[in-house]
Design brief:
It is a single chain. The protein is an alpha+beta fold. It folds into three domains: 76 residues, Ribosomal Protein S8, Chain: A, domain 1, CATH 3.30.1370; 79 residues, Alpha-Beta Plaits, CATH 3.30.70; 85 residues, RNA-binding S4 domain (Structural Genomics Hypothetical 15.5 Kd Protein In mrcA-pckA Intergenic Region, Chain A, Roll). 28% of the residues lie in helices and 30% in strands. The chain has seven helices and 14 strands. The longest helix is centred in the first third of the chain and has 20 residues.
């Protein structure tokens, strides 16, 4: 069945993900123990499951990334009797003393982790905080990171402590509502309205793989639907919150939720 379902998938990443999902679902049922994927963008996983397998064909699965709104999550398959749904995810609190130096970025923390030879798919969300960051990571990598990561960028006065998920200080996302009209639901048109860029600029950014819709690469002609989440690297993230009908000039009235 696995070969049949993956035979026509051309994208290597999609094919590997679908194959692992089918294998883990089968193994969990046969061996009566949980199995977990690596970390992936949660929206991308939903897209892949719906596109290649169908949500109704899945059983005994859960998504989790350390907290409810995590962008990167694991997909876990559990035996039918399982009730705890424990995921092999650790949370590290990384405190960095930067003095008067610049604030550290997501790229600084990710770069430090990748510099240790860690695969990107073993790393979940990195949440920036005034003290440094929370890092969600595969449980098997937590001790290695705690021991080996001795600096972030040029700063080497750091402390790393494993904490419980309940200790996470989650900031509610700050958003701004934009009500506007667009000629179509093409992604270049909506990004232009959201970020105040020309459609030509948006098209070039999309062609240079700077934009993703629900974690998936898209083309400039891709049509968005209500609820889609789009990220534009270097500019930010938006959600097409609502489509409110057509104006007299046959333009679409939409509401965009812009993360700030």
């Amino acid at each position: 069945m696995i070969k049949r379902l993956t035979h026509e998938i051309s994208d290597p990443k999609e094919k590997a993900f679908v194959k692992s999902v089918l294998e883990y679902m089968h193994k969990s049922d046969i061996q009566n123990k949980p199995f977990f994927t690596d970390f992936y963008n949660a929206e991308w996983m939903h897209q892949m499951l719906q596109k290649h397998i169908g949500i109704n064909n899945l059983s005994g699965y859960r998504l989790f990334g350390g907290y409810e709104e995590a962008e990167r999550q694991m997909l876990g398959f559990f035996p039918t009797y399982e009730t705890d749904f424990l995921f092999p995810i650790a949370c590290l609190k990384v405190s960095v003393k930067t003095g008067i130096g610049r604030a550290l970025s997501h790229r600084d923390f990710l770069g430090a982790l990748l510099g240790l030879g860690i695969e990107r798919d073993t790393i979940g969300d990195i949440m920036l905080k005034p003290f440094g960051a929370y890092i969600l990571i595969k449980e098997t990598m937590a001790e290695y990171v705690s021991y080996m990561m001795t600096g972030i960028g040029r700063y080497h006065m750091i402390e790393i402590a494993a904490i419980d998920f309940s200790e996470l200080e989650i900031d509610k996302p700050q958003t701004k509502e934009i009500n506007t009209t667009v000629a179509s639901l093409r992604i270049d048109a909506i990004l232009s309205a959201a970020f105040g860029l020309s459609r030509g600029t948006c098209t070039k950014l999309i062609q240079n793989d700077k934009a993703k819709c629900n974690g998936t690469d898209i083309s400039a002609s891709h049509l968005l639907k209500q609820g889609d989440i789009v990220t534009l690297r270097g500019y930010g993230k938006i959600k097409l919150r609502q489509i409110n009908g057509i104006t007299k000039k046959e333009r679409l009235h939409i509401c965009i939720e812009k993360y700030i």
